[in-house]
Design goal:
The protein is α/β, with parallel strands linked by helices. The chain has one domain: 3-Layer(aba) Sandwich (Rossmann fold), CATH 3.40.50. Helix content is 57%, strand content 19%. The chain contains nine helices and five strands, in the order E-H-E-H-H-H-E-H-E-H-H-H-E-H. The protein has a five-stranded parallel beta sheet, sandwiched between helices. Helix 2 crosses helix 3 and helix 4 runs parallel beside helix 5. It is globular.
């Protein structure tokens, strides 16, 4: 078990603000590992277009082929290869994934980022990533797919919750305060 790294695993529904949390963490020295990048890379490796349907299908296929924690297992060597002692992981979707990180990293914390459905859909509509939903119907389908792989349980059993229901400036301040608190506790161990 690696005791030299503080690893913060982020969970939350699509559009809640996990990517913004990651950018804030990076601005104060964290290295980011994005679980969705593993899925998008695998989608491309399989010769599929990056769109919500293909990325969603590959996510489910990977879990069928390698188990609920396959994405986390693929991320462990990426995290271990980092020279930084402070890592933030974007996109945990199941408790099995969290258990992989807990088994490898003594300084693992599971944190949920929360925002309303309306705010999340608006953010995803403006974000413009290739796998973002193009309609509210697609948004709801994606939410249900994400909940189907255990995301709701992961959010519910997170150690901490950071709410992103205000301005980006307020969220920035909240995330930095949270990171300072977690780092202080980690250094005391």
């Amino acid at each position: 078990m690696n005791i030299d790294k503080l690893v913060i695993g982020l969970t939350g529904m699509p559009g809640a603000g996990k990517s913004v949390f990651v950018e804030i963490a990076k601005s104060v020295g964290y290295v980011a590992v994005t679980m969705g990048d593993v899925i998008r890379e695998e989608t491309q490796r399989r010769g599929l277009e990056l769109n919500p349907q293909n990325v969603g299908k590959v996510m489910l296929d990977l879990r069928i082929e390698g188990g609920d924690n396959v994405i986390a297992k693929r991320c462990v060597p990426i995290i271990e290869a980092q020279t930084s002692s402070r890592i933030v992981i974007d996109g945990l979707r199941s408790l099995n994934e969290a258990e992989v990180f807990r088994a490898y990293f003594a300084g693992f914390k599971l944190v949920a980022v929360h925002a309303s459905s309306e705010a999340r859909f608006e953010r995803l509509s403006m974000r413009g990533r290739s796998d973002d939903p193009k309609s509210f119907e697609m948004f709801c389908e994606r939410d249900m797919r994400e909940l189907g792989v255990g995301l709701g349980s992961t959010i519910a059993l997170s150690v901490d919750v950071v709410v992103n229901d205000s301005s980006i400036e307020v969220f920035n301040t909240e995330v930095k305060k949270y990171l300072e608190l977690v780092e202080a506790k980690w250094k005391q161990q």
